[in-house]
Amino acid sequence: MAAAASSTDRPGALDITRRLTEICGPPFARLAGPADEVAGRPARWVAVPGGPHAAAEVLRLAARHDLTVVPRGAGTKIDWGAAPDRVDIMLDTGRLAGIGHQPTGAPTAEVGAGTPLRAVQAALERTGQRLAVDAPSPGATLGGVLAAGEAGPLRHRHGSPCDQLLGVRYLDADGELVNAGGGVDGLELARLLCGSQGALGVLVSATLRVQAVPAGRIWVTRPVWTPLEVHDLVRVVLAARLDPAAVELDLPAGAGPRPRQDGRAESMARHPSMAGRAALGPAGAGRLAVLLEGGPADVAERADRLVTLLGGRSGVSHSAPEWWRRYPFGPGDTALRIEVPIADLHAAVYALRDAAGAPVPVRGSAGLGVVHAALPGAMAPDRVASILAAVRGVLLARRGRCVVLSAPPAVRRAVDLWGELAGLPRLRAAKEHLDPHHRLAPGRLPGGL
């Protein structure tokens, strides 16, 4: 790709600024500011088109001037993944929002990519419906959730948001509006855009399945101390066939060996009178939490059975634990996602602990073998690299993987964010087909794509 003008002071850059203003309107096109970055890479312009046709014009303008375009939703995951090679135009999808008109009770909903997920749920809730989508990022847009491949606890029963897609509308690199869905090939293309970080197309809207809001919801929680204990308990939960909506784990860095407990205290914890109380447990203990959904009577009966199965200090609550649907990492941390078969999750967590030399906070969907972990942002890049190498070595033999979602700039430059990817040839072929000139978020995907 020929190099674009490197400075917004050049005469050609002033013309681009003027054209973006004509396309989007004076309040919605501007030179980028200090906060307009993608994984630390600064943008040159920000454009907020008012609809799909305006967004298409932005992409056509970029094509004519050989400029790169990186989509942005609410920016909650803008630092996930690799930094793009260049960010000429940041295309903000905030005005590509709204929910398409559907008859009350319809089994699907078409949602604009820039619509905040909480706004979608609030609108659907008024008709007794919901999306089974509960991504952890506060304020995230639906398009951002799909583009990042983000999912929350409900993926246990309902799959990820990408699994619930029935179709998408997106803009290709040349600004052509494409409808993908309605058949096997179309659905495969729609799902290919999931997790692509905007590097294969700019999402305009998505059609997803909706469902009735469950009448009853109960969380059954139990304190846990070790990854092996979690492994055994998850096996019990899944073998009981209680149809959990989610099976989540919170194992903080401070969780250590299970404290000794005399027989009387253990018996009291198992007494039926404790069944209606939330599990407390000693400070520093982790938690295993199981969400049950359905009719109130059925949920209550399944919860009683699960409390009996889990024993210990297990209890029930009608509200989620404080840590539910939250990541264990914060700004500046090195954020990891571990995916491994359920039977090997404990081995992966032990490997991470051993490599780090101490317990590492881990949280996520223990019932699926997908969890997140956090390494301190102040940890030296070469230390992070050695931890990743050790963990990936263990995971390789178990058909698992460890991905760095985000990290401080020094760490990002020093480590392989992705590890080995079996699907890289297919991803490369898709990039060459959908964006042959590499104008959409170049370098954002694995392999520098």
What does this structure look like?
The strands form four sheets. This protein has an eight-stranded antiparallel sheet. Strands 1, 2, 3, 4 and 5 form a five-stranded mixed sheet that branches. The protein contains 13 helices and 19 strands. The longest helix has 16 residues. It is globular and about 70 Å long. The N terminus is likely disordered. It starts with 10 loop residues before the first helix and ends in a 15-residue tail after the last helix.
> How would a crystallographer describe the biggest sheet?
8 strands, antiparallel
CA distance, first residue to last residue: 13 Å
Computed Rg:
23 Å
- What is the typical, i.e. mean, pLDDT? 90
What share of the residues lie within helices? Answer: 25-40%
The neighbouring-strand order within the major sheet is 15-12-14-13-17-18-16-19
Number of helices in the DSSP assignment: 13
Low-confidence stretches: 1-7, 261-281
User: What fraction of residues sit in β-strands?
Assistant: 15-25%
Number of strands: 19
User: What best-fitting shape do the alpha-carbon axes yield?
Assistant: globular
Classification by helices and strands: alpha+beta
